[in-house]
Every structure is written in structure tokens, then in C-alpha cells.
Amino acid sequence: MQSNSLFRFSIKVLVILSLIISFMPFQSKTNAAGKMVSGTITENTVWTKQESPYTLTGILTIYPNVTLTIEPGVEVIAGNGKSIDVKGKLKAIGTAEEPIILKDAYINGYDFVNQSIQLEYTNLYHESFNGGYLITSFRRDVTLRHNRFSNGLVSIADPYYDNLVENNFFTNGSTLNISNGRGKVFIRGNTFLNEGIDSEDILIRSREPNGGLPNVEINRNNFFGQNKINVSLDGYNRVIFNGLDNYWGTTDLLKINRKILDVNDNINFRDRLNIESIAYKPFNNGFEFGTLETPFILSVGDNDTTIKGLTDADSTVSVYKGSQMLGQSKSSANGAFSVGISPQPSGSELRISVEDSYGRKSMDGAVTVLDVTPPMTPQVNEISDQTTKVIGKAEPGSSVFVKKDAEVIGNGVTTMDGNFEISIDKQAVGNVLNIYSTDSSNNTSTMVTITVKDKTPPIKPVLTTTDVTDQTTVIKGIGEIGSTVQLKVENDLIGIGDLDGNGLFSITIPTQKPGTLLEIMARDTAGNFSEAVTTTVRDVTPPYIKYIGTVTEQSKGINGLAEPGSIIQVKYSGNTISSTVTASDGIFFTMIDPQLDGTVLEVTAQDHAGNKSVVFTVIVGKSSSFTDLTSNHRFYKEISYLLTKEVITGFPDGSFRPNDKVTRSQAAIMIGRALNLNGNQRETGFKDVGASSKASGFIASAVERGIIKGFPDNTYRPNEPVTRGQMAIFIARAFDLKNEAEVSFTDVQEGSASYIYIKRILAERITTGYSDGTFKPERNLIRSDFSAFMARALEDSFKVNVQ
Predict the structure, then answer these.
(1) Which residues of 204-237 are buried (b: 16+ CB within 10 A; e: fewer)?
(2) What is the C-alpha to C-alpha distance for residues 217 and 164, in angstroms, rounded to an integer?
(3) β-bridge partners, 487
């Protein structure tokens, strides 16, 4: 309790000192050897490799809501009493090739909103003084990944949010202290190599109100160092944490128990530390390994033909008598090994050496052969629910017995070469059989216990969903109760379902392409698979027609976009007048004779499976009859499109005047017609737009919708031309555009009235700007250009392609 109080007191002192120093201005002085820095950083700052090294001449404070970014390859040199105090954000993200160096630096994180510390590929160590803090953080966000810590303490206290300590290297007395809090702390994939250091690698404290919260997860870490504490638990309430899949420097659970210290009551670690699974060999986290412990070896009798024991998994175990190798074997996945040898006389000294998969060699273990002469332990083949003969090897001439509970269900005598076959009745899955042998002197071998395995495949499922189409999302059927049903496409699992008490299953799958072959099979709890049921997906989805171009009384063809490979038919009064097949990109064009204005044409698409799309009705419209607009005008199609939608009407003399400037009243009329706004003439509130104005209704409606605004002198200025910048504002507001492009123009300043709206029409491909990188927002807009912008906002096919 005293140590925890001192820890909290020291944090408070550091906070007070930092608050005082934080009012000092940030100072940066460049010299030939890099930069000298101290004081307070009040705006986002980047430290670069080019200006490295950075030497701390005092305490450096990162102000709240300010980020200090340290780039790869930067070196920061500090000293005793010099620290980086983080009230904002610290991002030190190096690379494996160019790590960041923090020498003699102390990073202190405070309890400020949005405060965070992120270190990746950073080497943080003390060189000029011994120990002390490397990092402290109180209640806030910490991310530590791929770093090297040396000669100091990393402390995370009472986190409010989840913190990550992943794939770091702690060495030379570098330790990790955690004070349990509301947020979780994930300690994953780290290596602790503190050989000869008495202090624990990880200290976890817990105080009210966080005691008993399982908020610390320690997984897939390497703990090296013999005869030392790896994890220490300290708290008034029970400290509980997830410790699955760590490598503790040994695979011996008794030794692991001694590496976990409970400061308060020293209860067995399994009550406090969830380690239902451990790693039986170190993880290759990319850091150095510690030493491989001497293997644990079971006692050996004079009739034993195996040397058994425990070491790391995937290790080569060699048994020697003097200089003679008696046997060699690999340890199993759980570190257990069994090396075959010839029987040795009692009193023989055997030496066991281990080399693991990383090339580490242990100190040799030794064992003296004991004088015990029972028969050898039988070696028994796998026994399943299909087995009628138990087959194996035992001591030649010995009797072998197979027992189920207390009943002998079979026995036999081994041959001269030690083989045996014992007939038994088929056993139920899960039955436990004990096999042992006795010799003529009634010495009994070690018992071999085997659980009968399930090797009987489940029955083949029967589908009740007999017609699987490209619209099917649920497949049902009947199968063996207790099994699960898997559905695969080309060996990829796309769905799985359990059978209920009636043997029924239902599997939800994503819709599949026509012609896809589905494979359905049952899998029981033992992993046996049934024979597969197959079915092919049938095509029932009608093809689509996405777009058909405008057809006028002068059109000699119809173009559009539909499902690739589909057959397009154009009908008039039920008779087919034209047909074609869409290309691989879905584009089609089919010739027709020019039709009269108002003619109704029906267009359909049909796929290879015979499915037909809905009927797309096309009404032949008038061609553009403007006297000053020809079909070779670059925006002829766009203007014709707006004419057919009655967005534009032209002038009484039959002209369109494409090169005339667009006035603010004309813009209001075209936007109002496109959006079907109320165009009834009425008062507008502007002193220069009366109810008698042709545009008054559309102007009033557009103002009500927030599309357009007047000027501070309460005028609308209806006859003034519309600029390109104003056009961007009108269209972005009218069509409620939200997405913003990253492209910027040299003549559009951030913060200008049209800045954000220009980025929005760029994102929607309504414009691209000019080739010289400008937008020219103050240039007056002509009627043909404004028509093009309106057509693109209304119809995707007119939008520009962005390279």
C-alpha cells in the first residue's frame, strides 16, 4: 500500500511541476549539431530527420489539443530531469529500417482530454543515468508498438480508455507497471529479457474502485530470466487478468507458478491468473531470446526404453551415455519429449541435451538409471468406434490387458518381437480404455489410457430447399442431430448452421452468381465429414437497364447502358423495330428510324437464362429547335436534355443565346424548375425583386430552401451575372452535396465563400476546373456552361471523367 501511495504522490508532483513549466514558451534553436528544444509546444509540430538530433535543454510540454509528430530516423537526446510532458498528443512513429532514438528522455502523459502517447519503432533508453521512468501515463491513451525499452520503467496508471503495448522489447532492467482502471490494457507479443534483474517484469496494481476488474490482458509475450518474478499482482481487491498463451521461460507449470507473485495472499496463481493455455516455446517477436532452461527429466528404470521429460516445444532432445548417443527425438507441441533408448543397467549415468528450433542450447540434464523391472509400457495404436482389434507393442512374452473401468474386455500375449493384437467389441465414442502388461513375475507395466475416438461420419444431409437461385439467401435441410452443416463454394466456407432437436438446419448465405456449384456436407463434433450434397445456382434475376439516352424526333438510334451481354429490344405498338446485344461494358446502340414527337417506345433487356427486365418507356421528344444552337455544339446534348425536362425554354425569338452571361434571376428559374420548386409569382422580401418579376416565385422558394441569398443591402440584384464561384454555391446547396474532393485550385483560397462548395461539385464530377490548375471563381458564367453544370447535377451520364 505504501509503494502505491508513493507512486501516486510522485505522479501528482510531476503534474504540478509540469503545469508550472507548461507556461514557458517553446524554444527551438538550430545549430550544426541539430536543434536545442524546450518550453511549451502550442501548435502542431513535426520533428524531422533532417533537423535531427533534437536536444532537450529543459522540460518540453506538448499543449492540450496539440500534436508533436516525430518522423523516422530522428534522434532525441535528453538527460536526467529533462522530460517530454504530454498534455496533447505525441506521435513518434519510426520504421524497422529507421527507428526513432529517445536517449535519456522521460515521457510523461497527463490526464487531459484527447491526450495520447503513440510510440512505434522507437528505442527509448537511459544511458547517462540508471533507471527511473521512461514513460508514465495517467488515465489516457497509450499505444506502444515495436519499441525497445532499456534501463527504465514504463508506467500506465488507471487508464480510462483501452491501451496497447504490443511487440516491444524490455531489457536491461526495463519493466512495465500497470495500475488497473476502467479501460483495458492489452500487453501482446512483447519480449522481456531482464536476466539477473530482481524486479518483476510487469507489476499490476489494483485499488478501489477498479479491483477485481479483468481489465489487463497479457498474451503472446516472452518472459526470460531464471529465478525471478515475471508478473507481480498487488491490490486490496483481487487482481484478475487474462494471461493466455504467454511463454514464461519454461513449460513447467510449477516453475511458472513461482514466477507469478501475489503480494497480498500468495494464493496459487491459477486463482488469479487465467492461463488455461501457455506457449510451449518462445514467440519469434523479432527480438533477442533468453537462455533455454535445463530440461525436466522423469526417472528412468533399468527396463525403460524411453527417456521422458519436459522442455520447450519443437526441440531436439538427445540422450547420451558418455560420448555415445543412445537416442534422439523431437519434443511435442506441449514440450513433452520421449526419446527411445535401449534398456540401460541400473546406476548408469545418462546425459540429456536440448537444442530448440531457434538454435538455443540448454545446460545438460542428468539422470541415473534406477533398478526397477516392470514390463515396458505398451505402445498402442489409435482406438476408434470402428476398432475391433487393439494393436500395439509391449515387452516380448508379456501379457497385455485391455480394461474398461474395472472390467477386462480383452487380453492377449505379445509375440517374440513384442507385437500384440487383442480382439474387443466395438466401443462407444468417449469410452476410456486402460491397457497394461504383466510379465511372468507379475510386475505390472505403466497403464496406457486411450479414449475411443469418433471415426464414423455423419449421415449425408438432405436439402429441403430444392431450387437454389441467384436470389436465394437461405438454404434449409435435414441432417444428423448434433452435427453442423457447412456450405462451401470452391472450398471456401460461405455458411454454417447447427441442427436443431428435430434435425433441421437453416443456413444464411450471400446471394451467389448463376452457375455456381454449392457443396453441402455435415461435420460432427469429432471432425468427421459426411458425403457432400451438391447443387447448382439457377439464374432467375432479370437483367437491368441502367440508362437510356434522350430520343428526339431526329434520332436515328438509341443508346444506353444495360447488363453486359443482354439482348436489347426496342418495340413500338408491340412490334420489335430494333434489337442489339450489349457490349462487355454494358453500353449499347441500336439503329431506329426517326420517330414522331410523342411516340412511346418500349425498351427491354433479356439475359441468356431468358429473364427479362422491366419495360423501360421512352417518349420521343422534340429536338432542340433553337435558331442559334447546332448539333455540333459541345453542350448540345446537355441543353437538349434540359429542354426536354423543361428546365430551360429559350427566348421568344427562338434563340438560346448560349454565349450570353447567366443572370442571377435566370439561375434561380433554372434551379427552381430542376427541383420542382414553387414558381408562383409573389413577394420576395428583396427591394429590387417585386411580385411582378417573372423569377420572383423561384427566387423566394430558393431563399426558403437556403439555396441562394441576397446582399447585405437587402437586394438580390437579379440582372447581375452569375460567377463560377456563385454557381458552385448554388448547385452544391440545391442538390445537398456533402462529399468533398481533395483537389485544390491556386486561385481559390481556403476560407473563401465558395471554397467548400467548389470542392463538393468537384467530388461529384460536375466540373474539373482549368488545365492551368485554376478554377476562375470570379469569371462570369455563360448560359451554355451553366446548362452543362445543371445537366451533370441531374444526370450521371453527363458527368465528367476525372483522371
Answers:
(1) bbbbeebeebebbbbbbbbbbbeebbbbbbbbee
(2) 10
(3) 495, 520
Q: For the packed helices 664-674 and 696-704, what is the interaxial angle rounded to 10 degrees?
A: 70
The pLDDT value given to residue 36 = 95
Contact 369, 300 (CB under 8 A): yes
> Whole-angstrom Cα distance, residue 445 to residue 421?
17
* Closest by Cα among 739, 785, 796, 788 to 762: 739
670/787 Cα distance (integer angstroms): 9
Give me 644's grid cell.
426536354
Cell of 536: 447448382
What are the cell numbers at 445?
Answer: 507395466
* 360: amino acid identity, one letter: R
Q: Which amino acid is at 687?
A: K
- Its pTM stands at 0.47
In whole angstroms, give the CA distance from residue 241 to residue 507.
37
- Across 292-318, b (16+ Cβ under 10 Å) vs e yields bbbbbbeebbebbbbbbbbbbbebbbb
Q: Distance from first CA to last CA of the chain, Å, rounded?
A: 66
C-alpha cell belonging to residue 613: 427486365
Query: Which DSSP symbol is given to 780?
Result: B
What is d(CA 429, CA 267) in angstroms, rounded to the nearest whole number? 38
Out of 207-216, 327-336, 398-407, 520-529, pick the least confident: 207-216
3-state secondary structure at position 132: coil
Residues sharing a CB contact under 8 Å with residue 708, sequence separation 6 or more, in sequence order: 664, 667, 668, 671, 699, 702, 729, 730, 733
Contact 136, 11 (CB under 8 A): yes
DSSP calls for 352-389: EEEE-TTS-BPPPEEEEEE---PPPPPEE---BTT-SE
CA–CA distance, 256 with 155 (Å, rounded to integer): 24
**To the nearest whole percent, how much of the chain has pLDDT over 70?**
91
The whole-angstrom separation of Cα 126 and Cα 105 is 7
Task: Spell out the residues 6+ positions from residue 338 whose beta carbon is closer than 8 angstroms to its own.
Answer: 306, 307, 308, 329
CA 382, CA 393: separation in Å to the nearest integer?
13
Length of the chain counted residue by residue: 803
As given in the structure block, the three cell numbers for residue 238 are 483481487
pLDDT of residue 623: 65
DSSP codes of every residue in 225-289: -SSS-SEEEEESSPP-EE-TT-B-S-S-HHHHHHHEEETTT---GGGTEE-SS--SS----SS--
Give pLDDT tens digits for 637-670: 888 778 767 788 778 777 888 898 999 999 999 8
Using CA atoms, how far apart are residues 395 and 610, in angstroms rounded to an integer?
75
Is the distance from CB of 291 to CB of 305 less than 8 angstroms?
no
User: What whole-number distance in Å separates Cα of residue 190 and Cα of residue 168?
Assistant: 5
Which amino acid type is present at position 506?
S
The CA distance from 119 to 134, in Å, is 12
CA distance 5 to 104: 26
CA distance 607 to 566: 5
Q: What is the CA radius of gyration of the chain?
A: 40
Rounded Cα distance between 221 and 282, Å, is 8
Strand-pair category, 474-478 with 504-508: antiparallel
39-73 core/surface letters (b: 16 or more CB in 10 A; e: else): bbbbeebebeeeebbbbbebbbbbbbebbbbbbbb
* Residue type at position 498: D
Residue 379, CA distances (Å) to 434, 446, 450 in order: 12, 11, 11
What is d(CA 24, CA 47) in angstroms, rounded to the nearest whole number? 20
